[in-house]
Write a structure and sequence with these properties.
With 653 residues, the protein is α/β, with parallel strands linked by helices. The protein has helices at residues 23-42, 58-67, 71-88, 102-117, 196-214, 218-230, 259-262, 266-274, 279-282, 299-313, 346-351, 356-365, 377-407, 419-440, 444-465, 469-474, 476-497, 502-512, 548-556, 559-566, 578-589, 603-624, 629-652; strands at 7-12, 46-53, 95-98, 121-131, 136-137, 143-146, 155-156, 173-177, 185-194, 235-236, 238-239, 256-257, 288-295, 320-326, 329-331, 373-375. The strands form 5 sheets. A 5-stranded parallel sheet has the order 3-2-1-13-14, sandwiched between helices. A 4-stranded antiparallel sheet has the order 5-4-9-10. It has a 3-stranded antiparallel sheet with strand order 7-6-8, with no helix packed on it. Helix 13 (377-407) packs across helix 15 and helix 13 (377-407) packs antiparallel against helix 17. The protein starts with 6 loop residues before the first strand and ends with a helix.
């Protein structure tokens, strides 16, 4: 950190090392943080962006057993895969590390010892599931069963993905050992607990201050306040595992720290592997602002558990300033599933033949900031053809080609004070202010839209000015003004698009023959001086054939989709299955919360399901806050309308 400068520390949630990241993982943390880091650097802020693979814990042991290799070999294998995927996506970490390091052990144990010394560690016996088949306590992820809250199958011993509840493994109905399928029994095991209840008051005070000063994302606020409202309870921080950070306490030689106690400590430990002066970043709250990016399921560990651990040490730590969270990205109306072959994963993206800039643009433009969003192949291709190619690319190419053809690639003498030019500068400055304010508030999707609005305003300016051979031949001074301001707008766009599409920015700068520009608060339209020679015009984007939609859907639609395509030409059954007919009949007469089993879910249905879920949460929130009867009725009416619409779609399917 530098004195008298704004120092920005950025982290993205450490991706778990046991699998290839999918698009939801990528947009939820690393890509979003990369945009903010690039923006901060072009604003002139002293910026450090760190990330790395989260490598300890049950999931690693499970995957290693499955692949018949050691945990270390598994971590080495997948760390390399993650690194390659993020490099392909052009994610510009200052350092991409990992948690299986000596620094991780040293810092984790030091935090634990200070918590213990300050009276925040409790020793107690915990009832756990024990597998009699292979004579071992079962860690959370080694057991699955039926959720005690929503009664859905497939709930893990630590959390149910269907309803989001955190659970204790012993609460599961019909539990099964994932290793051998045996039914576990209940036994006691001694463990250490972090007494979060003792830290609640201090945590609440910090949360209130940080939310106000850092302008947290709304779902980050909601989830955190929900945890605090329920009241914090002692949380177990040890596990009966071998692969993890050792617990420095007699009698605990065969246990390790629970991954959600020490995973977040990975941020300072990864920084410590980057620089021995890591404490200047992590123990410097007066001069460093911490921005953290993650999916919503990681929120409480970053806003309650980790901060409480730091507060409990009694030291001055750099605490979270702003949290940016995302909802879930779904794939063509369903969930990503590596085992079922559904969805696009990092390695698929690299093999798709679609440029990285198109992927970055589409994912960031559909970032699930307030509601779940859908990845749709048709939308990705439309974004390339109708926005990147027809709007942004068209503007840059038209200006540089005209300058090359009519001005020998040399910027003419121009004025920015004429009425059309002054109007353009005023409009661009209003949009530029919106862009800067959006990204300063980490509203990533909104700022990207503004970039496209600016290029659209540039295209409008060229059209209104009637930039063509006639203007050049009949009114050269007017043409000079248009080209002079237009080339300056190209230069501004190269800077504004850089956080989102860095190689596109680099291509524009190469064509302009100019260095990277900072992102300033205002634009005067005269950065590029008369007499400057630009480079050669190149197309930024190429049209993608819309016919590829079906091909790509088939390739990444899962095993069922592949089998269905192999049977093309097989006559359809004369009647729909009974369950499907029953679902349709029910839907025709009433609204639905979700698409019933047996009905093929379309992207439109999935989108309405997402809206129903969000609207339902709003209704519950209004009732809890005792909103006016009129407000509640309006929200309920909207919810019922959505349910009816879904019912109609299902009935027609």
């Amino acid at each position: 950190p530098k004195p008298n400068e704004r120092n920005i520390l950025i982290t993205s949630a450490l991706p778990y090392v046991n699998n290839v990241p999918h698009l939801g993982n990528i947009i939820g943390c690393v890509l979003s943080a990369d945009v903010f880091a690039r923006f901060a650097r072009l604003r002139g802020y002293n910026t450090l962006y760190v990330c790395g693979t989260d490598e300890y814990g049950t999931a690693t042991e499970t995957k290693a057993l499955e692949e018949k290799i050691s945990c270390q070999e598994l971590c080495d294998k997948y760390h390399k895969i993650h690194d390659e995927v993020y490099r392909w996506f052009d994610v510009d970490f200052d350092f991409f590390g990992r948690t299986t390091t000596n620094e991780q052990t040293k810092i984790t144990q030091d935090i634990f010892k200070k918590l213990d010394k300050n009276g925040y560690i409790l020793e107690d016996s915990m009832t756990q599931l024990y597998c009699p088949q292979h004579s071992s306590f079962l860690a959370d992820r080694f057991v699955e069963g039926i959720c005690p809250y929503c009664n859905k199958e497939g709930a893990r011993g630590d959390q149910c993905d269907s309803c989001g509840h955190l659970i204790n493994a012993v609460e599961l109905k019909e539990p099964k050992c994932k290793l051998d399928g045996a039914t576990p029994i209940v036994r006691n095991s001694d463990h250490l607990f972090l007494e979060l209840g003792k830290l609640q008051e201090k945590c609440e005070g910090w949360v209130e201050k940080s939310i106000s000063e850092g302008k947290w994302s709304s779902n980050g606020v909601t989830i955190t306040n929900s945890w605090l409202k329920e009241g914090l309870k002692p949380r177990c921080i040890t596990r009966d595992l071998k692969w993890g950070t050792p617990v420095p306490r007699p009698g605990y030689e065969h246990k390790v720290f629970y991954v959600w106690f020490d995973a977040c400590i990975g941020y300072p430990s990864i920084t410590a592997n980057y620089t021995p002066e890591w404490e200047k970043w992590w123990k410097n709250p007066e001069h460093v602002q911490l921005f953290q990016f993650m999916g919503k399921d990681n929120v409480p560990f970053h806003t309650v558990v980790f901060p409480s651990s730091l507060i409990g040490t009694g030291e001055e730590w750099t605490m979270l300033h702003h949290i940016s969270t995302t909802e879930y990205l779904q794939y063509e109306g369903t969930k990503f599933s590596k085992s079922k072959g559904v969805g696009v994963f990092g390695n698929n993206v690299m093999e798709s033949g679609i440029p990285v800039e198109v992927w970055r643009y589409y994912l960031l433009s559909s970032r699930p900031e307030t509601n779940d969003s859908q990845f749709l192949w048709a939308e990705l291709i439309a974004a390339n053809n109708n926005i990147l190619l027809a709007n942004f690319g068209n503007y840059i190419n038209r200006v540089i080609k005209f300058l090359a053809a009519k001005y020998d690639s040399t910027v003419p003498t121009y004025k920015t004070t004429e009425t059309p030019e002054a109007a353009l500068i005023t409009d661009i400055n209003a949009l530029l202010s919106e862009y800067v304010q959006s990204l300063e508030s980490v509203k990533i999707r909104a700022a990207l839209k503004v970039v496209m609005d600016i290029s659209a305003r540039g295209n409008q300016y060229l059209q209104d000015s009637k930039l063509d051979n006639t203007l050049f031949n009949s009114n050269r001074p007017r043409c000079d003004n248009v080209l002079g301001l237009a080339i300056n707008l190209c230069y501004l766009l190269a800077a504004l698009i850089y956080p989102y599409m860095p190689t596109t920015s680099e291509s524009v700068l190469k064509q302009l023959n100019l260095p990277q520009r900072t992102i300033s608060d205002t634009w005067t339209g005269d950065d590029v001086l008369p007499g400057h020679r630009v480079g050669f015009a190149e197309y930024l984007f190429k049209k993608i054939d819309e016919a590829r939609v079906e091909e790509l859907r088939a390739r990444y639609g899962g095993k069922e989709s592949t089998e269905a395509n192999a049977k093309v030409g097989t006559p359809a059954p004369a009647e729909a299955p009974a369950s499907k007919k029953k679902a349709k009949a029910a839907a025709a007469g009433s609204g639905l919360n979700e698409v019933p089993e047996g009905v093929a879910k379309t992207a439109e249905m999935a989108e309405i399901e997402t809206k129903i879920k969000a609207q339902g949460e709003l209704v519950r929130k209004l009732k809890t806050e005792k909103a006016s009867a009129e407000e509640v009725k309006k929200a309920v009416d909207e919810l019922l309308a959505l349910k009816t619409k879904l019912g109609d779609l299902v009935a027609k399917a």
